[in-house]
Write a structure and sequence with these properties.
5 helices; 34% helix; five-stranded mixed sheet; 186 residues; alpha+beta; 2 domains; single chain
């Protein structure tokens, strides 16, 4: 972790704030590296966070079996991994009303019609979930009055430039420097 600031004490304080927020949100093990640039004179805050690799997205077919019965015109969903049942129900309730989904037991759901196409629908995306949690941390870390924010994030690096003025090109260049450094392991 690097917090750049001309004021050593200010850098230390921001490092403590960042560590505390990461601890509160249990993000310590999910982040490879972090770089921050703070300059109260300008007023600017640049933050770049490199996320650790996550597991692949989980689809219906990974955690359940979808079987269509032509005679009854019913798709039965047999849950293999109960941990994903809340996510499965949330997805189904967005597409169907709760009345349309019959749940005879804990591991089985039934829907009228052929919905075997649900096999490829993503049930859980760890990368997206982690990214959402990191953005939550970012918005807790940013100084309160800094309402002008430019998001320069890439696939694995969440990067923002924040200020209460117009964003300067030099600040964007600083953010791109951090992205390059984090991509190259510096």
């Amino acid at each position: 972790m690097l917090v750049e600031c001309y004021d050593e004490r200010g850098a230390e304080v921001y490092e403590i704030i960042i560590k505390q927020i990461f601890q509160d949100l249990v993000l310590g093990t999910a982040v490879d590296d972090l770089k921050a640039y703070v300059n109260p004179d300008d007023p600017v805050f640049v933050l770049a966070i490199k996320m650790r690799k996550t597991s692949n997205a989980i689809k219906f077919e990974d955690v359940a079996n979808l079987i269509y019965n032509k005679e009854r015109d019913v798709t039965t969903i047999l849950i293999d991994n109960e941990n994903y049942l809340p996510n499965i129900l949330k997805i189904l309730w967005r597409q169907f009303s709760r009345d349309e989904i019959y749940q005879p037991n804990r591991y089985q759901l039934e829907i009228n019609g052929d919905y075997t196409s649900l096999n490829t629908v993503i049930v859980d995306d760890p990368h997206s979930n982690l990214q959402r949690r990191i953005y939550d941390a970012v918005f807790r870390i940013l100084p309160e009055g800094f309402k002008i924010i430019k998001d320069l994030s890439t696939e694995d690096i969440v990067t923002v430039v924040a200020t209460d003025e117009l964003i300067k090109d030099a600040w964007i260049e600083k953010a791109h420097e951090y992205i390059d450094e984090l991509n190259n392991g510096k």
